[in-house]
Amino acid sequence: MRKVTAGLFCSVDGVVEDPFLWQFDSFDAELGAGMGEMMGRIDTGLLGRVGYQQWADYWPNAETDNDFAGFINPLPKYVASRTLAGDLKWQNSRLIEGPLEEFVAALKNGDGGEIGVFSSISLVRQLLFAGLLDSLMLIVHPVIAGSGRRLFNDGDPLTRLVLQESQQTSKGNMILSYGLRGD
Question: Any idea where the Bacterial bifunctional deaminase-reductase C-terminal domain is (predicted)?
Answer without folding.
Answer: 2-173
